[in-house]
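non-specific serine/threonine protein kinase
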Amino acid sequence: MGSSLIFSMSLFDYHLPSLGNAFFFLFFVCFASSTLTFTAAATNEKQKEALLTWKSSLEDHSQSLLSSWHGNNSCDFLGVICDDYGSITHLNLSYLGLRGTLDGLNFSLLTSLLSLDFSNNQINGSIPSSIGNLSKLNYLILCNNTLHGNIPLNIGKLKNLRILYLCENYLSGHIPLVIGGLKSLEILYLWKNRLSGPIPSEIGGLTSLTKLVLSINNLSGSIPPSIANLTCLSVLNLFKNEISSPIPREIGNLISLNKLELAENNLIGPIPTSLGSLGNLTKLSISQNNLFGPIPQEIGELRNLKVLYLWGNELSGSIPSEIGKLTLLTNLDLAINSLVGPIPSSIHNLSNLNLLCIYSNNLLGPIPEEIGKLLSLRLLDLSNNSLSGSIPSSIGSLTNLTILHLSYNDFSGSLPPEVNKITRLSAFDLSYNELEGQLPDEICQGNLLQNFSIINNHFTGLIPKSLRNCSALIRVRLDGNQLSGNITEAFGIYPQLKFIDLSHNYLYGGLSWKWGHCRNLTSLRVSNNNIFGEIPTAFGRMTQLRALNLSSNNLSGVIPRELGSLQFLLYLILNGNRITGVIPNEIGLLSKLEHLNLALNNFSGSIPAQLVKCTNLLSLNLSKNKLKGSISSEIGNMRFLEVLDLSQNLLTGRIPQELGKLRVLETLNVSHNSLCGSIPQAFGDMLALIIVDVSYNNLEGPLPNVKAFNEAPFEAIWHNKRLCGDVVGLQKCNSPMSKKGNGAGGHRTTAILVLSFSGFLLLAFILIFVRCQRKNIQIENNGQSNDSDFLRILNFDGKAFYERILEATEGFDSKFYVGEGAYGVIFKAELATGQSVAVKKISSSHEEEFLHFKSFEGEIQALSDIRHRHIVKLYGFCCHVRHSFLVYEYIERGSLRTILNDDERALEFDWDKRVNMVRGVADALSYMHHDCFHPWIHRDLTSNNILLDADYEARVSDFGTARLLRPDSSNWTAVAGTIGYIAPELAYSTIPTEKSDVYSFGVVTLETIMGKHPGDLVSWECSLSAEIESPTLLKDVLDQRLSPSRVRLQDAEDVVSIARLAFACLQVEPRLRPTMRQVSQELQVRVPLEMPFSVVSLEQLRDFDGRKFQASQGYCKF
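Tokens:
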């Protein structure tokens, strides 16, 4: 308006005298100025009104964060910048923690905005379509909020937009085609949302685009060939989506490309040779896809390449020698493929290489001598191949090496002495090879070695002297070799040591008191050696110890009472020694103890009454000692006991009736004692019992009517007084001969011969009868399949139990419904004995697969053999034409999810209980992954299949159930996990691994401390700049029902520790995740906080280098 008035003024210049002209000129200038001032004031007032109206729509706390928003001039408000006319041109409210929506912000009054930055807040709701009114906008930054809904179509009106950041939200739907019309766009960040559908080909019209980041979404389809038009593009990141096409050859036209990241998709086909045209490329990451074929030779043309990640595909053929042309390369990872042939000698040209990972392939031949020229190398992992020959002496030239993993190969010969020159090693793994000779004396010359493993080789000689002062040691595995020498003074004091295993060697000498000063030690295993002397009382100072295995040695003396101080001890294995004296009462103080084996020693006295306080025991073996007295009835209170072996002692008296309460007991051996009386009939309710041995006692009366006794071999019950029952070789209970007993001497021999011959005739008659009957049944059934008639419950009388379950649930009436789990509905059944079991009735959608359980009977037997206090016991299964179901131990409180969803119960589930629950789940997974003879993967760990007992102890259920469905079933991929808990690698593979369970554990752990599913907190980390990382405080995402701002220091330390471990478990790359054994061990150590709990942020917890765990894994094998 001012300009038009000034133009009008020029018209008067031709008609007025000079004085008048001056007067009028002054008049119009004043008028125009006042008009402009009035207009600016009016504009400012409207802008102020728009901002204050929006402020009032925010939550109260957020309004207080904008306390400077008062007064008459909005240009003075926090985050506001105006132009000379008072119009707001820049609005930056990032990192304030504002809560609210954008609905109350009138964008039509802010049309002068050039930049809008609301990033790193907690703004929710959708992006309003009125944002399209900001026609002058150059920068729109809304990253790291909780925005949801679709990207509005009106965003296509922002024709001047150069920067569009909508990353780290919950935006869904498709990428709108109108984005293709934003011709000025230079950077487009849409990563870490829930966007789906294809990448629109219209993006190819954004010819000014330099950075395109669409990672961590659910985008599918193909990479559009039109992307080749983006010749200015320097960064293309489509990491972690569901793109399932080949890599288009047109991508080779992006000659300005600096970083190409396509990892963690479902990309198929070969690597296009056109990638060799991307001469400016510094990073190429196409790992974790389904790419196949050879590595193209053209990749050697990428002379500026620094990072090459091809791991986790199906690449085959040999490693091309052209890789040796990539002289700027710092990181080369070709692991987990099907590469064959030798390691090319041209690799010696990669003088800048820091990381070389080729593990888990099929490489053959020796390590090339030229590898010694890689002087910058810090990490070398060649494990899990078929490499052979000797380890070259040139490896001693790699003096910067910190991690060296050569495990699971066929290396032979001795270690070259040049290994002593590698003084910076923190992790050294030679396990599972054919190496021999002596270990280098100066293996820990640099005193930096943390993880040292030589499991199952043929090393001889003494333990290296340098290990004695290697104070940085954390994990040591020397087991399974032929090491010798006196270990009394071979080891020193290791303040950080957590695990050491010296088992199965030829070591001798005494146990040093110095072990007692290894205060962080969780596992000490020295079994199967020639160790002598007494157990030092100083062992009682190892307060973090969870496993102590000194079995099969020549230890003498007594068990020191100080061991009662080991409050975290789970395994105490001292069998096969010459220990004497009484079993100390202090053993009863080990409340967490799960396995106690004192067999084959010289213990005397009675079984201590205090032992029954170890209520978490799973196995108790006191056999082959000189124990006297009676069996305590209190043992019946050890409700988790699965193995009880008291055989070959001097025990007298009766078998207590109370042992019948051991509902999960599977093995009972009280043979070779002097027990008398009858076997309690309460044993008939011990449904889990599999193996019994009561031989060589003075027992009499009928055998309990339970499968374990009915099917026991005669050798397990003979040499008693008057036992009777339906076992072959034993007198019937109603037979006159049974009254005369089955005592010693000639009568016993005669009876055995007669009974054996009679049994043989009876067995022959039964076999003939059964064969005839089977033929008749086959004729009657006219060749029908027997699958529908297959009925069995492991360790039970199947048909009888099937009827008892139907009776207890009244035919699966809804009033017995207690919940829903994977694959079916759960009912509570209370049997006539008073025992409660959980019955999972298989849903119809899975019943077809379940009817094929007969082919998985071996696996179910293995599952039913699992013994761990934190794993729900599987009793067995029934398959029937009417109903199919699994029978489990009943757990009182139900699932973790149910408790977290109930405000009242969640309050009772306090921090201490939650931390303890997380530890229990970790212990269970560690046991399944590492301690079972055949490792088991859960495959579907969620908060719904973690149950809590009366004491809020964790019990993991549904272990291995997914594995039992038919592999060719249409449901096979669906059972590999539950949405929200699935590891990212399962997006392209239906084969879960232990590391998939680790990821799910991370999700469940966060859910436990947050009180709800963590949502996008489990989104996979992206390799973008730190400037957009979230500063969210941990206390703000924890379960607010437990008032985390007032948490006790002890609980705060625990919560921070498990949160940090949870994020470690959520690493994108499976190999960067810890093993569950490592997690379980880490959870036993409380780490003091380095800063106030109130300022601990998620960013700090996520700032985790996963490779710290690689050193101690050997990539899952250490």
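The first helix runs from residue 2 to 9.
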